[in-house]
Specification:
Bound molecules: guanosine-5'-triphosphate, magnesium ion
Number of helices: 39
Strand order of the largest sheet: 14-13-19-10-11-18-15-16
Strand content: 15-25%
Helix content: 40-55%
Length: 1136
């Protein structure tokens, strides 16, 4: 096969109906990259002998070494089928969970995907995840069941068994799709119902109940995978073969004289061939007959494998001649039977033909994008399509047309930015020079030389301004730099070296993008729209027809840039393009400074930003990094910025402590990020902290029976053994705590008194809050805009319904005397206003609701109104870092039971009258304040600024006067309230039994029976818990489902792999938070306990170990004894 030229590709790009944008998705190691190799080799880009071994799209060194893909990369292929020519933009994606964000970036640009499933392993967790992602993006999946050779060679199944096994896999996959599909149909159904309800509200009539679920009348056949529909290919990528049943249907229709359409329907399924009657009959197993698929297809493949593996030369010869194939002498004499097999099979049933023709038949072209998908892409968050401005709605037709005419608006979506070595860019590559260029260069060199000569003779020649080169449009910098290197190379070697190094070191970022409408042209100016951009806002300021120029008014989240370079993505290579028409995947250079990770580009300001990508993985593994040499800090910071841009999922933070922190999805991802940072982006040596393990703090219900180690004993216990312990839990004067844990505390100026109680939330409620954090955030936004009386955009009915449903669920789960009216009294969620903790108010004379957006509250002005934001802020601060080790809280409910406040006028007068007296007492208290609380005062001040600008009540104007007079020694009153509220929450928390919560991973481990024991050993050593163990049907493989604390997970995958000689390899996915049952503050109280656990009692207390580790890391006070008990040390030495 000859290589397709770039010109040919450019031609194909213009025929939109022949374009297919697809990605390959699967669980890790199911053979995506190997399949991609086979497809690539059909285009002659790599040799067919190397297909499967090279893994061409795994271009990174670590990808090759580890054998897993870490990024998605694209390649364009040419495919001819009959008289039709196709351009296939293929994207290979990683299967490892740590890189699932790369899958999201790939899926967004495609219209279809190839789901690859390992015939032995079947449906795995990531298979389900990618099916879901494909589903969410509304793209059409097709299926490749890969590694069928393993059924023959490894599992040694008979064809009949293999058929049942394959049938089983297909059923499993269809079950997953079925579940996705059903939920959607039901959802749509519910939507329709609410709509019709609305209609019937206005026109009451006879209600007709329809009991059907709607599933019956929806045609879902195209959604299921079935060989007869032509969306399943059976393959072995490593041996280079694959087929859809239509291939065999065609073949046998001639041989046995049955119509191909009949064969197509019966080749897969319970049918058998009655050879005498030349008829196909139904029902095989009951009659002990071989199904057609076994008889006509699998038997042949099996016998070929058998012949080759047994080196039965005669038989091989026979098969080869009967199939009409030609096998080269090199292959037929090769010592490895696999080579021979590959040579025969890849000619007999070429996998690329089977897969690519399935793709061309089943995946829609960009012209067939569905209206549903377009609307989904255009509506961000809670907006409905109808609420978009009319100019924006019109753009829907542009999406649907996918037109490449000059008049069509250009719409491009950038799903990620990937780094490319500047040297690898086509414009920087050495290319043969044309005659004119050579002449031109010679001329330039001569002039330089003359200048040099003149300079050395002391003559002043006007120098060229150096800025000219740097201000050159970057599109040409490559060429210019090339020149510069060459020219300066003759003389000043220093500068040449510097320039050279700069080009070498420079990472260029290329945008991974797709044109959805119009033609992207090199040098074109285009708007860059951030995710928060609102077309309605800009259309007020700009006309819909305006184009990106420098004199436009400033619109938030919108800039413009120039498309400097356009590239055809060819795996490891890039090819320069002048323009890219609609429907194609492309690379864009020169967006580095405008786009961080993803963006929407358009020539029309009416274009809405695309909905953000769905990321499935939660970044959870964090480490702090610092350069080995402190002077290299700037390089590190720059490197981290680049890394942040290059990876869709990594988070790069600078903490208040000054630490530079990387947050990654998992260990493998972390490793890759660090490698990148060291070798690519920062190029300095870095030291990395041990992974920072996140915890949550919570409280539990006081135990009913065993009170020894909890509340009652606390005071005496502390007194007896741990005097210092008291410092931590010390409750200072002025704070009253009653036996039930109600904390009463006053502000330093005594003008307000708060009573706060903490209660653990039921588990389901915490889970609900966590699941709905996005919804809570939306609610919060809606409420703020309601409060500010801003013209809010229309609220999506769906969102309102979800809020209602959320409220109902909360009500259902918060029942009992304690929680009476609780849901209506929810004041805020925290931390960050959307976390899994609740603030309730439970005192007279106040009314406020987070359910405001449902429209059921009246706005009310009371004396509390001006300061309630301070209480909420205090709650937010308290939930952000708990008293145990300053980690965020989870599952805690704070109830404000009393809030006494003197009127502003009163405050004014009292402060005047008693100022002298007050001062004295207050001063004393002020000295009690720790450093921490002054800090809080500081942050409180900042908060207050925000509040003042936010609320606009008339009382506000009179207030500052009163505040001013009080402010002199304690800061503004609102600030005091924040600090007091925070303190109150912390004390309330400490009055209850506190617990740490650990992050948990789930993992699924596949292991054979021999290594099962070792897997269990590793799991239990790391405090893992097995949830489930089952045997995979038809194999001797066990699937173990387990949970494992994140804190114990580092090195887990490696350890398992080592202990099982690589037979089992787990993938860890963050699943939930779990309370650690032991009390971190537990100390032995009784004589026996003391003897048994020792004084420190930390050998047993995991929670305490975790807590102290975190405190140490954060530089907090840790109560620990360093050397104790000489006799214990002796015991140690005896053990030596
Ligand atoms: N027996 C057999 N092995 C295969 C087949 N296809 C791929 N493999 C092997 O499976 C392993 C993984 O293949 P890859 O193509 O790297 O898998 P992948 O899905 O790209 O993996 P990730 O990108 O890491 O998710 C390699 O060792 C391949 O040689 C096949 O058809 N039969
Ligand atoms: Mg791969």
């Amino acid at each position: 096969m000859v290589l397709t030229s770039v010109e040919k590709m450019v031609g194909l790009q213009k025929k939109t109906s022949g374009i297919r944008n697809i990605c390959i998705l699967a669980h890790v190691d199911h053979g995506k990259t190997t399949l991609a190799d086979c497809l690539i080799s059909s285009n002659g880009i790599i040799s067919s002998r190397l297909a499967g071994k090279l893994r061409y799209l795994d271009s990174r060194e670590d990808e090759q070494i580890r054998g897993i893909t870490m990024k998605s990369s694209a390649i364009s292929l040419h495919f001819v089928k009959g008289d039709q020519e196709y351009l296939i933009n293929l994207i290979d994606s990683p299967g490892h969970v740590d890189f699932s964000s790369e899958v999201s970036t790939a899926v967004r640009l495609c219209d279809g995907c190839i789901i690859v499933v390992d015939a032995v392993e079947g449906v795995c967790p990531q298979t389900q995840a990618v099916l879901r992602q494909a589903w969410l993006e509304n793209i059409r999946p097709v299926l490749v069941i890969n590694k069928i050779d393993r059924l023959i060679v490894e599992l040694k199944l008979t064809p009949q068994e293999a058929y049942l096994h394959l049938k089983n896999i297909l059923e499993q996959i269809n079950a997953v799709t079925g579940a996705l599909f059903t939920s959607k149909v039901l959802e749509e159904r519910a939507e329709k119902e609410t709509e019709s309800e609305n209609v019937s509200d206005t026109a009451p009539g006879d209600q007709i109940y329809d009991w059907s679920t709607g599933l019956e009348d929806t045609d879902d056949s195209h959604l299921y995978f079935s060989p007869e529909h032509g969306n399943v290919v059976f393959a072995s990528a490593i041996d280079g073969w694959g087929f859809g049943i239509e291939h065999f249907a065609k073949l046998y229709s001639q041989k046995i004289g049955i119509k191909p359409t009949v064969l197509l329907k019966t080749l897969w399924g319970d049918y058998y061939l009655n050879t005498k009657a030349k008829k196909i009959m139904k029902g095989d197993q009951s009659k002990g007959k071989k199904p057609l698929f076994v008889q006509l297809v699998l038997d042949n493949i099996w016998s070929l494998y058998e012949a080759v593996m047994k080196r039965d030369k005669e038989k091989i010869e026979k098969i080869v001649t009967s199939l009409g194939l030609k096998i080269g002498p090199r292959e037929s004499r090769h010592a490895d039977p696999k080579v021979q097999l590959n040579a025969i099979c890849s000619q007999w049933l070429p996998i690329s033909d089977a897969v690519l023709s399935m793709v061309c038949n089943k995946v829609p072209s960009p012209l067939d994008i569905t209206a549903e998908r377009v609307e989904k892409l255009m509506c961000v968050g809670a907006r409905t399509f109808d609420s978009l401005p009319p100019e924006t709605q019109e753009l829907k037709s542009a999406f649907m047309k996918c037109s490449s005419e000059g008049t069509a608006p250009v719409i491009v979506f950038v799903s990620k930015m990937f780094p490319v070595d500047s040297k690898a860019l086509p414009q920087n590559k050495p290319r043969p020079l044309t005659q004119e260029e050579i002449a031109h260069r010679r001329e330039l060199a001569k002039r330089r030389h003359a200048e040099k000569l003149a300079a050395s003779q002391g003559k002043e020649l006007p120098e060229e301004p150096p800025s000219e080169n740097s201000s050159e449009v970057a599109g040409n910098t490559g060429d210019r730099k090339g020149e510069e290197q060459q020219l300066t190379g003759q003389g000043d070697s220093m500068t040449s070296k510097a320039v050279k190094e700069e080009t070498e070191n420079k990472e260029s970022f290329i945008a991974f993008a797709r044109v959805f409408s119009g033609v992207a042209k090199r040098g074109q100016k285009i708007f860059v729209l951030g995710p928060k951009y609102d077309p309605a806002e800009s259309l007020h300021k700009l006309s819909a027809q305006c184009s990106p120029t420098s004199d436009l008014p400033v619109v938030p989240h919108m800039t413009y840039c120039t498309l400097e370079n356009l590239y055809l993505l060819m795996g490891r290579e890039l090819e320069d393009l002048e323009e890219v028409p609609a429907g194609n995947v492309l690379g864009i250079g020169g967006l580095q400074d405008f786009v961080l990770k993803s963006a929407t580009l358009s020539t029309s300001p009416a274009c809405p930003p695309f909905t953000p990508l769905n990321f499935e993985a939660t970044p959870i593994v964090r480490v702090a990094v610092e350069p080995k040499h402190p002077s290299e800090m700037p390089q590190l910071v720059r490197g981290m910025k680049l890394l942040n841009q290059a990876d869709p999922c990594v988070q790069v933070l600078i903490q208040e402590t000054g630490e530079h922190v990387l947050v990654t999805a998992g260990e493998v991802h972390l490793q890759r990020c660090l490698d990148d940072l060291r070798e690519r982006f920062a190029k300095v040596q870095i030291s990395v902290s041990a992974p920072i393990i996140p915890f949550r703090e919570t409280i539990t219900r006081p135990p009913k029976v065993d009170m020894v180690n909890e509340e009652i004993g606390k005071q005496q216990k502390v007194a007896v053994i741990h005097q210092t312990k008291e410092d931590q839990n010390k409750i200072p004067e002025g704070v009253q705590v009653d036996s039930d844990g109600l904390v009463t505390i006053s502000t330093p100026n005594k003008q307000a008194t708060l009573s706060v109680r903490a209660m653990p939330l039921p588990e389901e409620v915490t889970r609900l809050l966590e699941e709905n954090s996005d919804l809570i955030r939306t609610m919060e936004q809606l409420n703020t805009s309601l409060n500010e009386d801003k013209k809010t955009h229309e609220i999506n009915q769906k969102t309102l319904d979800r809020i209602k449903e959320f409220k109902q669920k909360l009500e259902k789960n918060l029942q009992g005397r304690k929680w009476r009216n609780a849901v209506d009294q929810i004041w805020s969620f925290g931390p960050r206003k959307c976390g899994p903790n609740i603030l309730l108010y439970n005192f007279e004379g106040y009314k406020r609701s987070v359910w405001q957006c449902l429209g059921n509250t009246v706005k009310e002005v009371s004396k509390y109104r001006d300061f309630d934001n301070s209480i909420v802020s205090g709650f937010q601060l308290a939930t952000l870092s708990g008293p145990m080790c300053e980690e965020p809280l989870m599952g805690v409910c704070f109830i404000v039971e009393k809030w006494e406040i003197n009127k502003v006028g009163d405050m004014l007068s009292t402060s005047r009258q008693d100022s002298g007296e007050n001062d004295a007492t207050e001063h004393q208290q002020n000295e009690d304040n720790t450093l921490g609380s002054t800090d809080e005062g500081h942050s409180a001040n900042e908060h207050q600024h925000g509040n003042q600008s936010g609320t606009e009540s008339p009382e506000k104007i009179s207030k500052p006067k009163g505040e001013l007079s009080l402010a002199d020694c304690y800061g503004p009153f609102s600030g005091q309230l924040i600090a007091t509220m925070k303190e109150a929450c912390r004390y309330a928390l400490q009055a209850k039994p506190q617990r740490l919560m650990a992050a948990m991973y789930t993992c699924e481990i596949m292991a054979t029976a021999e290594v099962l024991g070792r897997v269990y050993a590793v799991l239990s050593k790391r405090e893992g818990r097995v949830l489930q163990e089952e045997m995979k049907e038809g194999t001797d493989v066990f699937i173990i489902k387990a949970v494992l604390p994140v804190a114990e997970s580092f090195g887990f995958a490696d350890e398992i792999r080592k202990r099982t000689s690589g037979l089992a390899s787990p993938q860890l996915v963050f699943s939930h938070w779990e309370i650690i049952s032991s009390d971190p503050f537990w100390v032995p109280t009784t004589e026996e306990e003391y003897l048994h656990f020792g004084e420190k009692a930390d050998s047993e207390n995991q929670a305490r170990k975790y807590m102290n580790a975190v405190r140490k890391r954060k530089g907090l006070y840790v109560e620990e004894k360093i050397v104790e008990h000489a006799e214990k040390q002796r015991t140690l030495s005896r053990n030596k």
